[in-house]
Fold this sequence. Notes:
- There is one protein chain.
- By secondary structure, the protein is mainly α.
- The chain has one domain (about 10-330).
- The chain has helices at about 10-40, 40-65, 70-100, 105-135, 145-170, 170-180, 190-220, 235-260, 260-290, 305-330; strands at about 225-230, 230-235.
- It is globular.
- The two termini are about 30 Å apart.
Amino acid sequence: xxxxxxxxxxxxxxxxxxxxxxxxxxxxxxxxxxxxxxxxxxxxxxxxxxxxxxxxxxxxxxxxxxxxxxxxxxxxxxxxxxxxxxxxxxxxxxxxxxxxxxxxxxxxxxxxxxxxxxxxxxxxxxxxxxxxxxxxxxxxxxxxxxxxxxxxxxxxxxxxxxxxxxxxxxxxxxxxxxxxxxxxxxxxxxxxxxxxxxxxxxxxxxxxxxxxxxxxxxxxxxxxxxxxxxxxxxxxxxxxxxxxxxxxxxxxxxxxxxxxxxxxxxxxxxxxxxxxxxxxxxxxxxxxxxxxxxxxxxxxxxxxxxxxxxxxxxxxxxxxxxxxxxxxxxxxx
Length: 333
């Protein structure tokens, strides 16, 4: 995630170059992500699997700095199973929709409940499996630490990445039309299909990354007061507030396009801004404990998959359950 760094000692030109480099990485990454996401299906599933396995590899490899030996292969397997369950469940739900079943009707709810039970079984298998793997633990290793870090990686990365797949199939515009709202996208037929397919992910990724970018700029230009000096000394209150404001603005724009009310859009934007920064600080806690700068180098000087997607991973479940429960069950918009 782009930091909310302090402005002391920052020259305008290096800051501009750094911002442009980060923006270029974001534009290329988002273009690929949204293009493949629009196609959906198993191609998108394969891309999400690749990102998940790479993120888990970054996490498990970083632990070796502290001589921690998680069961990486078991973690990869469990994460893959969680993604398969999510994709299979969404395929079943899409099949029900084509058969005329109401969204989240009885049959659809059975699918959601079934995938939840299967996911819990995978987590149980992960806990039992990593404990069994400790039977062959090397001398001087900690069974508690090895087991805990294995399961934590599956939940932190595998489970959260599964919500990328789930959100891909949430048609926010369709839900708003059911609630009597008129999405702005209906005025632009050329964009309607894309936004119906990717609107839910755009509603999360757009505000989060906009807030991330503004936080980076505001922190570097005007940051004076440290936000969490013991966790991440470079982050500032000014950058944090700028990021929150940008997240709200981004959610209002995306929400208007999808037909959401301004109050719910602003509230979700605020929550994504807060949760995203909490996720970023949580990642900083891990990196500080491990004594590393970044989890990976897949994005060059901008870090690895975990460094780029930390805030988004924390925001996805929040927005998903909002639409699943409040919108479809309670009727809130």
